Amino acid sequence: MDLTITLDQRSATPLHKQLYDELRRAILTGRLKPGERVPSTRGLSLSLGVSRTTVTQSYEQLLSEGYLRAATGSGTFVGCELPDELLRTMPVEKFRPAASSQETWCQIELSCYGASIADPNPFEPCQLAEAPINFSACRPALDEFPSQEWRRLTLKHYRAKDRSMLNYAGESLGYEPLREAIAGYLRYARAVKCGADQVVIVNGAQQALDLIAKLLINRGDQIAIENPGYLGARRVFLAHGAELLPAPVDESGIVIDALTSKSKSRLKLVYVTPSHQYPTGVTLTLPRRLDLLCWAEKTGAMIVEDDYDSEFRFGSRPIPSLQGLANGDSVIYVGTFSKMLFPALRVGYLVASPILARVFARAKWLTDLQTPAIEQRVLADFINEGHLERHLRRMRTLYDNRRQTLVRALETHFGDRVTILGENAGMSLMIRLRSGLDDDEIERRALNSGVGLISARLYYLGEECPDNMGEFPLNYAGLSERRIREGVRRLAKILK
Predict the structure, then answer these.
(1) What is the DSSP letter of 195?
(2) Given 59, 208, 340, 450, which residue has the most CB atoms within 10 angstroms?
(3) Predicted TM-score of the model (pTM)
(4) What is the three-class DSSP state of 305?
(5) Sheet with 418-421: strands ordered across
(6) What confidence tens digit (pLDDT) does each residue in 438-468 have?
(7) 3-state helix, strand, coil in the chain (%, to 5)
């Protein structure tokens, strides 16, 4: 590989001295590692467009000073034992990010958007505890994914004579057969009213939320979010300068009255997770759904429906989507395959009116041109051949068994000291513990015993969250029944 070095032909400094200085700096700063082979004099002279004599002069000086060493028949290498005094001549300054958004970042004036995310506090990724039994990480049962079928479909496309999948995708909306497959699935399974021209393929639900914020929110616009609610949505809307109105969630879902009583001005948008609210686990009831749609129609606000794990409902059929109940185009529907299949797939979708869908597609094209074509084709086949439906049926049974195991274990070990919140749906449930300990202490004790927990306090916005609430979402989908039982047993032991 060519070594990138900048030489100035117009400088008064001889080229061999410039090259010597650049190579010496690369060695002392660690860009060239001890023992690493450097290009031959012939190769470097061709790469830089200078004479071989220039390179030879530089190498000879570096060899004499111990920066390089030559091995007969093998080439020239960076010295492995550089004197300490040489290493001290050019200390390496490590980059340190600014402590706050008020500090100057490399003398660059950030845009309004850049300034809004310069302060890392609201935007730092949540550091989930890594523990042998981890209830804090929301992961599907990856070991149950039909990898063999996915591999077969992937190889089929790579072996095909059609090489167009290796080029940029032709349609900014996404691969049409995949959009048709998703539209058909949503009409059947979620009563979503849509055609392929309303589906936009995105790189996961998070990109869908970012596009929505870009196209619908101006700085200072007031939008409502569930409280507690999904951190990813909160962070996106904050980054785009929205003023957030935290709307409380009760046993029937988001409280509609709060959307009017708490707002200072007209709400531009409301973000909801109606099928399985995160983290409380409640389902937005049908009367409350109709009230929300009526409110949106009266006020002109847009509803963003994040239907992230609606496929997993146990004991009853899911309530139809908000989008399917709406009379007009007041609902933008967002979904993802991260929970259905696997997170690394990075394929999601949003559903909007045909006109708005085309605008979303243009905005996505400006960001990344396309979602990878091969994954779109494989996923289209995976859906059309029935593998998605079969996989979801298996996962519903598996997750239902794991949920029941978790509930029984909690009742056995905690009795009346625990309250289980939410509906029989999704890949998680929330509990309220009565232990006499604050949440930080419970998290610390749990981690010391090998159990990952995270307090629901993290998901609250504003001052509505008490300091010691004892509420914890438990993500069980990726844990075996044995590990679930053991995790609850360990929690009960440390909280006696």
Answers:
(1) -
(2) 208
(3) 0.79
(4) strand
(5) 418-421, 428-433, 471-475
(6) 899 999 999 999 999 999 998 998 766 655 5
(7) 45, 15, 40
